[in-house]
Design brief:
The protein has about 250 residues and is α+β, with helices and mostly antiparallel strands. It has six helices and eleven strands. The chain starts with a helix and ends in a 17-residue tail after the last strand.
C-alpha cells in the first residue's frame, strides 16, 4: 500500500511540473516588435576616411595578409565618369594612382579589389590564388523618412501593425521585407526576404512599404544622391534571421 502511495505522489509531482498544453501554446504568441533599419554593404568606408587610406587593411578590416607569402599583383578597378579604370600595385600598400582612383570613383558605385598571391603554407608547389572583394563609399547622410523614425513607426502602425492580431506572431519567428530608397527618394524593389508564413500578412506589410511617402534620399558631401537598402523586420528580434541582414541597430 505504501509503495502505491509513493508512486501516486511521484506521479502527482511529475504532473504538476509539466506545462499545460494551453499555457504552452499561449506562451508562443507575443506582442511583436517592428522596426526599419538600413542594410549596410559588407565592406564600406566613410568619405572622411578616404584621405587616410594607405593599405588594404584600411579599406577592409577582414583582409588577411597572413595568408600571403608573396604578392603577384593588387588590382583596383572603379567606375570613373561611367567608364571602368584600373590601377595596379605590387603589394597591400596602395600606390598613389590607386588612391587617386578610389577618390575619383563615381559615388554610389562598387570599387573592386583583386589580390593575386602565392599562399603562405607548407606546400612545395603552390598555385597562384586570388582574393577578390568589393567596397563602397558611404554617403555623408543616410536616406530618411519624412518626419523621422517616430513618424515612420506611426505610419507602419496605422497602415499595417494595427491590422494584424498579435496572435499571428510567434516567438523566434521574424518576418523581413527588404526595399530600396532610390536617388529620388522613391521606394523601389520592395520584396519579402523572410515570410511570415501567412500570405495575407506578407501582402499587407508589402503594401504598406510600397505606399510610403517619398523619403529624403541619401546624399554625399558634394550633393550627389545615392540609393540605399533598408529592411522592415516584424516579430521576435531574437530570431537568428536578424544575423542574415547586416543591419546596425545601434545607429537608431
Amino acid at each position: 500500500m505504501k509503495n502505491i502511495q509513493h508512486k501516486l505522489i511521484a506521479l502527482l509531482f511529475i504532473a504538476l511540473a509539466l506545462p499545460y498544453p494551453a499555457s504552452s501554446q499561449g506562451s508562443s504568441a507575443f506582442e511583436p516588435e517592428y522596426e526599419v533599419n538600413r542594410i549596410y554593404p559588407y565592406i564600406s568606408i566613410t568619405e572622411e576616411k578616404l584621405n587616410s587610406v594607405q593599405t588594404l587593411i584600411d579599406i577592409n578590416e577582414h583582409y588577411k595578409s597572413s595568408w600571403i607569402r608573396e604578392y603577384i599583383s593588387v588590382e583596383i578597378s572603379a567606375s570613373y565618369e561611367g567608364r571602368t579604370k584600373k590601377a595596379i600595385s605590387k603589394n597591400e600598400t596602395l600606390s598613389q594612382e590607386q588612391k587617386d582612383l578610389i577618390n575619383m570613383a563615381d559615388l554610389g558605385t562598387d570599387i573592386a579589389v583583386k589580390v593575386q598571391y602565392m599562399p603562405e603554407n607548407a606546400l612545395k608547389n603552390n598555385d597562384i590564388k586570388e582574393m577578390p572583394f568589393t567596397f563602397t563609399i558611404d554617403p555623408k547622410s543616410d536616406a530618411k523618412y519624412p518626419g523621422g523614425q517616430q513618424q515612420l513607426k506611426q505610419y507602419l502602425k496605422d497602415n499595417a501593425m494595427a491590422k494584424i492580431p498579435d496572435s499571428n506572431f510567434k516567438r523566434y519567428n521574424l518576418t523581413a521585407l527588404k526595399f530600396t530608397i532610390n536617388e529620388e527618394g522613391q521606394i523601389i524593389d520592395a520584396h519579402v526576404f523572410e515570410t511570415s508564413k501567412d500570405k495575407k500578412i506578407d501582402d499587407l506589410l508589402l503594401e504598406a512599404i510600397s505606399n510610403m511617402p517619398s523619403w529624403k534620399p541619401a546624399e554625399y558631401a558634394n550633393g550627389t544622391k545615392a540609393k540605399q537598402d533598408f529592411v522592415l523586420t516584424v516579430g521576435d528580434h531574437e530570431s537568428c534571421v536578424i544575423n542574415l541582414l547586416n543591419i546596425r541597430k545601434d545607429n537608431h
